[in-house]
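Holo prediction. Input below; ligand is inosine 5'-triphosphate.
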Amino acid sequence: LRLLAATSNRGKLVELRSLLSDLPIEVLSLAEVLPGAPPVVEDGATFLDNALLKVRAGALRSAMVTLAEDSGLEVDALDGRPGVRSARFAREGATDAENNEALLAALADVADDRRRARFRCVMVLLDPRSEAQPIVTEGRCEGWIGRQPRGAGGFGYDPLFVVEGYGRTMAELGEAEKNLVSHRGKAAREMRASLEALVAR
Ligand code: ITT
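Structure of the complex:
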C-alpha cells in the first residue's frame, strides 16, 4: 500500500515511518507526492478539526490513501495551552528552540508540583477511493514540564517533557522507547487494524 503521510514536520514523518515499518506500507511524504503544494491553513479549534483539514487536503490533492495527525502539548497551569497552537506558541513560524524558551518563560513562576502536562495526538486515515468516513484514533502521554531542556532525541517540546513514570525527558528516550510511550505511538497502534484492512483490500 502506498500511503501519503500528510505532514510537513520532519520529526513526525520519521516517527510515522518507524511506527509503520513492519507493515507492507510505503510511507510517502508530502515533499515526494505533492512538491510545492501550499500549506494547509490549520485554523481548526481542536486537534481533530486540524487533523481532518490536513487529511482531506492531502487525499483530495493526491487521490492516495492519506494519514494525517494533529498533535500538541497541553499544560494544566496554562489552562491547556499551547494545545492546537503548539507549533506556533512563540510566534508564527517559530523554531522548536523558540517554542521551548517561550514555554519555560510562561512557566517560570509555576511550582514543580503544578507543571503537569500531556502530549495529545489525533490521527486520521482517509481512503479517497472509497465512500468510507475518515478513521480517527487518539493517543495521550502524561508527564510534566521540566526546568531546563534535557536530551537530544525527538523534536519539538521533547527536551522539556518529563515522561510520567520514567523520570527522563522524551528527548532522553531512544526512538523505540519514545514510540512505546508516546501519544503518536499509541495513536498509531490504535490505527493498525484499519491500516491492515486497507492493505488487504
Ligand atoms: P504538520 O501540521 O505539517 O503535521 P506541525 O509541526 O505544524 O506539522 P502540528 O500543527 O500538529 O504539526 O503541531 C504539533 C506541534 O506540537 C509540533 O510542532 C511540536 O511543537 C509539538 N509536538 C507534537 N508532537 C510532539 C512530540 O512527539 N514531541 C515534541 N513535541 C511535539
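The beta strands are 2-5, 26-29, 65-75, 116-126, 135-145, 161-163. That is the main takeaway for now.
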